[in-house]
Each structure stands twice: as structure tokens, then as C-alpha cells.
Amino acid sequence: MENEILDMLKSIHQSNLSLKEEFHSLKEEFHSLKEEFHSLKEDVHSLKDDVYLLKDDVHSLKDDVYLLKDDVHSLKDDVCSLKVGQSNIINRLDAIEDGMTVLGKKTDGIAEQTADLLEFRTDMVDRVDGIRDDLSMVEFVTANNFRDIAKLKAIK
């Protein structure tokens, strides 16, 4: 019986050693799992930080999109205003062109009148020159007459 007890004790001891090895193996595995869990925790924390940064970026992008939409709206208003201004300028240019046509016709009339006036002036200058010539002749004849009268008076 003693042998049996001894065998049992050996068996228990063997089992105990086996359990210790298993416990040690489990302990190492637990430690490895603990490290992996810690690593996963860090990864989750890092992912949370990344998500926070992404949310912040998305918020910033939304703000930028809002500003861009506002700018586009402002540009559309400016384009509408420019189109109205362009239409007004076109209308003014049409009016100016019409005025230029009228002025062109008036200028043609003025040119014709100027030609008539130049012809009239030339005619008047010729007439005045003729009158001057006639006056010179009258003065000459009058001077001769005064001389003749003076001679006649001197004879009497």
C-alpha cells in the first residue's frame, strides 16, 4: 500500500507538475493576451483620436463648403448685376450710335451749308473787290473832278 500511496503521490506530483506547467503556460498566454489587449486599447484610443480629428476636419470642410456656397451665391448676384449693367451699356451704346447717325447727317448738312457759305463768301469777296475797284475809280474820278473844278474856279 505504501507503494500505491507512493505511486499516487508520484502521480499527484506529476499531475501537479503538469498543472504547474499548464498554469505557467496559461499565465504566459494570459500575459500575452493582456499585452494584446493593451495594444488593442491603444489602437482604439488612437482610432478615437483619429475619428475626433476626422470629425474636426469634416466640420471644417462643412464650414468651408458653407463659405463656398455663400461665395457662389455672391458671385451669382454679381453676375446678374453685371448682366444688368451690360444690358444698360448696350442700350446706351445703341442710343449713342443713333445719336452719331443723327450727328453724321447734321454734319453732312453742315458741310453742304459750309460749301454754300464758302461759295457765297467767295462771291461776296469778288463783289466787295469789285465795289472797292469801283470806289477807287469813283475816288479817282472825284479827285479829277475836284481838280477840274479847282482849275475852273481858278480861271474865273
Distance between termini?
A: 215 Å
**What spatial form do the alpha-carbon principal axes imply?**
rod-shaped
Q: Please describe the biggest sheet, giving its number of strands, its sense, and whether it closes into a barrel.
A: none
Task: Let me know the number of strands.
Answer: 0
Helix content: over 70%
The helix/strand order is: H
Strand content: under 5%
Low-confidence stretches: none
The rounded Rg comes to 63 Å
SS summary, helix count? 1
Return the average pLDDT rounded to an integer: 93
Computed structural class: mainly alpha
Coiled coil: 16-50
Keywords: Coiled coil
Description:
By secondary structure, the protein is mainly α. The protein is built from 1 helix and no strands. It has one helix at residues 2-155. It is rod-shaped, with a radius of gyration of 63 Å. The N and C termini lie far apart (215 Å). Residues 16-50 form a coiled coil.
Compile the SSE list and pairings.
Blueprint: H1 2-155
Keywords: Coiled coil
Coiled coil: 16-50
Quick synopsis:
Keywords: Coiled coil. The chain is 99% helix and 0% strand.
Task: Give keywords.
mainly alpha, 156 residues, coiled coil, 0% strand
